[in-house]
Amino acid sequence: MGNEQAILVEPYKGILRDQTWSMSKLRLLENCPLQFYLSYILKFRYVDEDQDVTERDLGTTIHYLLEMMQMGHRISEAYELTEQKYFSTVGEDNWPRIIGMLPSIRKFNRMLHDKEEAAGGFDYVEPEMMMAVDRDYNPVSFFDKNAYFRGVVDYMARKDDKSLVIDYKKGGQGFLTRYHSPQLSSYLLLDYYVNGKFEEGQSYIYYVESAELSRGPLIQGNMIESHTRPWLDDKIETAITNVEDTGFFEFKRGNMCKYCDYAPLCKDGKRGTAGSLTEYEIKSKEIL
After folding, report:
1. Which pLDDT belongs to residue 155?
2. Strands 45-48 and 139-140
3. Across residues 194-217, what is the average pLDDT?
4. For the CA atoms of the chain, what is the radius of gyration?
5. E strands, 160-261, in order
6. Mean pLDDT of 125-137
7. Under a CB-based contact definition with an 8 Å cutoff, are residues 89 and 61 in contact?
8. In whole numbers, what is the pLDDT of the chain averaged over residues?
9. C-alpha–C-alpha distance, residues 233 and 201, integer Å
10. d(C-alpha 280, C-alpha 84), whole Å
């Protein structure tokens, strides 16, 4: 059994063009417009009390541990702070998995130290940096009503005219970095406009469980305005236009369904349909 709540909004045309975007939000619109509609337009909340959220809680915990470490705490101190905050959430049975990832955390710390030494020291380091730009790509505060695109970067460093951004993933391996490249490119774009133009920006993903630092896109600063910014605008416009041309927020089944909070409500219908959510799919025609 689950608990669900829908907060209906007053429908009006062009609602997609008033959104503040992030790469994860945009990917959701591309992968399953119906899930986007439920999450961001209706703000429909569905809680499956039987859902296993262990992996999500472990991911949140590891991100917090890394954040505390980058804020200047020694690894032992960062671990103690993390244990105080998340032990009851993760649970005694699963906490050994956090302990098991500590060697990987130490390895990552050494990697960052080596990179900083190779750079001759960073000008600054920012963990969990929240960035946003308006439609003209001017920097604005993260929750500004005029924010057009935003993102939160797990780790960012700058040395002279070179930028470094790193995203943390609890699970996965380097072969997945290609899939995450759009997200990494968007982080470099935000860094360029929010923190000042750079000559070169390099991105990475650190996969904690496999202890792998995987190289992502390398973008020259002069390519941000000529290529990355038009690419992002076109990606957003294409996603919006596809939904508008369809005329409703269409259900799409795919590999990401297993991570969807609404999956139990889709599975009770015929394959290829939205099941119990079909009524919302039909209702969405009113706002497009």
Report:
1. 97
2. unpaired
3. 98
4. 21
5. 162-169, 200-207, 212-220
6. 97
7. yes
8. 92
9. 20
10. 42
Running DSSP on this structure, what letter comes out for residue 272?
T
Tokens of 115: 């990179």
Residues of 105-144 as b/e, b for ≥16 C-beta within 10 angstroms? Answer: beebbeebeebeeeeeebeebbbebebbbbeebeebeeee
Task: State the pLDDT confidence band at 3, using cuts at 50, 70 and 90.
Answer: low
> If you count them, how many residues does the chain have?
288
Q: Residues 151-163: pLDDT tens digits?
A: 999 999 999 999 9
The confidence score (pLDDT) of residue 254 equals: 83
- Other CB atoms within 10 A of residue 163 CB: 24
Lowest-confidence region among 9-18, 137-146, 155-164: 9-18
Kindly report the number of other CB atoms within 10 A of residue 172's CB atom.
17
Q: Please spell the DSSP secondary structure of 20-89, one letter per residue.
A: PB-HHHHHHHHH-HHHHIIIIIS--EEEETT---HHHHHHHHHHHHHHHHHTT--HHHHHHHHHHHHHHH
Q: CB within 8 A of 53, min separation 6: which ones?
A: none
Query: What single-letter amino acid sits at 38?
Result: L
pLDDT tens, 34-84?
999 999 999 988 776 667 789 999 999 999 999 999 999 999 999 999 999
Distance CA 102, CA 80 (A): 12
Dihedral angle at the C-alpha atoms of 50, 51, 57, 60, nearest 10 degrees? -140
> Which are the contacts of 263, defined by CB distance < 8 A and separation ≥ 6?
257
The answer to whether the Cα torsion of 176, 179, 180, 181 is positive or negative is: positive
Q: Dihedral sign, CA of 216, 220, 224, 226? A: negative
Two tokens, residue 267: 């599975």
Which residues does 233 contact at the CB level (< 8 Å), separation at least 6? none
Residue 52 has phi, psi (to 5 degrees) of -85, 110
